[in-house]
């Protein structure tokens, strides 16, 4: 936790018009790449940079195989994870419930009152329930282990050169489409699963895409045509009814535009998902293929004519059922909509009043500090709180002059305080190549 003195300083800094001015003057192009299904303790769990609270710096963390029976044994976080995690962990709303609270149907009122706090102890038991034929030791490694710095050299180089958030959560403790909607509009509009509305342009709420078009700012949603996520701009009915489908383009166009210096003000990138051969880092997709995508996007921006005005945000949709030791905090509901699902433990209604798991998020730009680890943020009410996907919309509102779309976004801390007044000239031109995972190395569980 930051000291009280640090919190006061952060409040002053976050509220400063000078910081908003740095953002507005220095950043003309925002690029956001939203990867898939990894928690901070999983993907950045082996990063040794001070200030990142993770297994290598603060662990190990352990989960019992059976929460009700500790004598049955436990699995603890340890170095090295699989390139390809074969058994995708549970990340439904109720799966997240079990992982965080040890029950599919936690008492919402007690959570809201602060008397029920997540223990983060149910990840292993839930994975065993889903995959009863897989050895418990393998299960434990799948959800508790973490990637070493050597296993994710691209991310390690980015952490050592740019800003990493230590307290950034997904907006919703559930799956990808609701979280991708929350990132781009501040709400999933009551959706808690990847239902048909997302693929049939059924979301009616205002998105950042509509907001930017209506205020004469440019955007393109670039997507990997191999498919599997989004394209997220197409969730929204507006994109269709306003004739803006031409702004949804192949990722190949992104690289061409980056080289030519013709990127729009807002570039939103969808990776491919979710099996081997895709690049979002979603199980069973390989971590090394995701690293190759991140490297290519970074190097394209770094070599392009727009780099000196660019802010590249690398983030994830949600934590994907991988262990993280930080309980998700409460947050205001964006609207009055709820989501009800039947679970293995009975019906459960989610009121969208808390965040999801902690996920990796980095700010990459010649305008951010080198190797800075950001702790909690400060919202406009002066509260010291965790960052979340809504922090993107809050900050873009400062950059492009629009009001928060709803109470969740209004209460999210923005991050213009992380944009500096001086251009850095020491940002790396290239990043390391992804690690080659082979069965030959010390940890034979690495899947090549
Ligand atoms: C967990 O342990 C409890 C208490 O011993 C037992 O009743 C229950 O069946 C166990 N659950 C599983 C999934 O093994
Ligand atoms: C994670 O991956 C699954 C695919 O297995 C996908 O359905 C889901 O939406 C992704 N995101 C989350 C949060 O689960
Ligand atoms: C999209 O909006 C149009 C016009 O308001 C409406 O007719 C149509 O039913 C909507 N489509 C969906 C999928 O909601
Ligand atoms: C970015 O700024 C640096 C330092 O002023 C300058 O050397 C470099 O040429 C600029 N790059 C581009 C692409 O304008």
Automatic annotation (TrEMBL):
Alphabetized Gene3D superfamilies for the sequence: Alkaline Phosphatase, subunit A
InterPro entries named in the record: Alkaline_phosphatase_core_sf, Phosphoesterase
GO biological process, one term: phospholipid catabolic process
Annotated GO MF terms: hydrolase activity, acting on ester bonds
Signal sequence bounds: 1-20
Keyword Nucleus: no
Pfam families per record: Phosphoesterase
Keyword set, alphabetical order: Hydrolase, Signal
Domain of life assignment: Eukaryota
Family matches, as PANTHER family: NON-SPECIFIC PHOSPHOLIPASE C4-RELATED, PHOSPHOESTERASE SUPERFAMILY PROTEIN (AFU_ORTHOLOGUE AFUA_1G17590)
Protein name: Phosphoesterase
Organism (species): Echria macrotheca
Source species taxonomy: Eukaryota, Fungi, Dikarya, Ascomycota, Pezizomycotina
